[in-house]
């Protein structure tokens, strides 16, 4: 079972979620504003964060960005009443692992939580504790560490997952839909441009000349191919 941090200012909803998660055997903490939530995320080592967007003091988007900026790969599930496509895209681009819109069924949320935790555990367990040379970076997928000649490089959990997936499929053409389904965990997704934006970021990390990449190659009309 997992340690779950709920960052939600609607007290009744937060308590209801806490009760359901605890019934499933999880250990649950609650923060009622973004400032406290960020502090708890950085100091209590949760294994999953349920994060509302509309929060007092610091927005959920800013909390998510701050967590990823610190280099933490903790899975984050965005939980919000806002359902616009741009909010979903922003949340996922800022480093969230999943996004569910209020109102929702508790059964659906619990199923999504289990899926996110399972992907995170599978990812952590599937790569040996060693550095892989990927362009300019040496990447240790087991410890979520990346280094270049200047030292440590911060990558988000999603960036590690995309690099790992490309590495495991080196030499093969991988479609954007494959990446969306494998990395984000479900096929119904608002836009494939999120994948393209992550690829742009990764090229800046690993390529000597991101405008003329040698490792992450665009296969026009399909997706990408990874070349050592």
Task: Describe what you observe in this structure.
This protein is an alpha/beta fold and 228 residues long. It folds into 2 domains: 3-125, Rossmann fold; 128-226, Winged helix-like DNA-binding domain superfamily/Winged helix DNA-binding domain (Arc Repressor Mutant, subunit A), CATH 1.10.10. 43% of the residues lie in helices and 21% in strands. It contains 8 helices and 12 strands. It has helices at 11-23, 34-43, 60-69, 85-93, 106-126, 157-168, 176-184, 193-206, and strands spanning 3-7, 27-31, 48-52, 76-80, 98-101, 131-134, 137-140, 145-148, 151-152, 173-175, 216-219, 223-226. Strands 2-1-3-4-5 form a 5-stranded parallel β-sheet, with helices on both faces. It has a 4-stranded antiparallel β-sheet with strand order 6-7-8-9, with no helix packed on it. Strand 11 (216-219) and strand 12 (223-226) form a beta hairpin. Helix 2 packs parallel to helix 3 (60-69), helix 6 crosses helix 7 (176-184) and helix 6 packs across helix 8. The longest helix has 21 residues, at 106-126. It is globular. The mean pLDDT is 84.
Query: How far apart are the termini?
Result: 38 Å
Classify the fold: give the CATH topology of the largest domain.
Rossmann fold
Structural class: alpha/beta
Which residues form runs of ≥5 with pLDDT under 50? Answer: none
Structure characteristics:
single chain; about 230 residues; Rossmann fold; Arc Repressor Mutant, subunit A; 2 domains; five-stranded parallel sheet
Give a brief outline of the structure.
With 228 residues, the protein is of the alpha/beta class.
């Amino acid at each position: 079972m997992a340690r779950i941090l709920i960052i939600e200012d609607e007290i009744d909803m937060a308590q209801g979620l806490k009760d359901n998660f605890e019934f499933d055997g999880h250990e649950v903490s609650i923060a009622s504003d973004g400032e406290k939530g960020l502090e708890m995320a950085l100091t209590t080592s949760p294994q999953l964060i349920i994060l509302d967007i509309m929060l007092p003091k610091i927005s959920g988007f800013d909390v998510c960005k701050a967590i990823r900026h610190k280099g933490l790969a903790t899975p984050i599930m965005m939980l919000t009443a806002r359902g616009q496509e741009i909010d979903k895209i922003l949340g996922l681009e800022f480093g969230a692992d999943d996004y569910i819109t209020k109102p929702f069924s508790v059964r659906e949320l619990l199923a999504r939580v289990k899926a996110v935790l399972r992907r995170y555990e599978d990812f952590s367990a599937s790569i040996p504790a060693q550095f892989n040379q990927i362009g300019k970076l040496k990447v240790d997928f087991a410890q979520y560490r990346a280094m270049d000649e200047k030292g440590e490089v911060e990558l988000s959990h999603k960036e590690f997952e995309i690099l790992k997936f490309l590495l495991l499929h080196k030499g093969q053409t991988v479609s954007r839909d494959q990446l969306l389904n494998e990395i984000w965990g479900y096929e119904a997704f608002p836009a494939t441009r999120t994948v393209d934006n992550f690829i742009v970021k990764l090229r800046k990390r690993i390529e000597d000349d991101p405008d003329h990449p040698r490792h992450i190659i665009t296969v026009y009309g399909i997706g990408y191919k990874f070349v050592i």
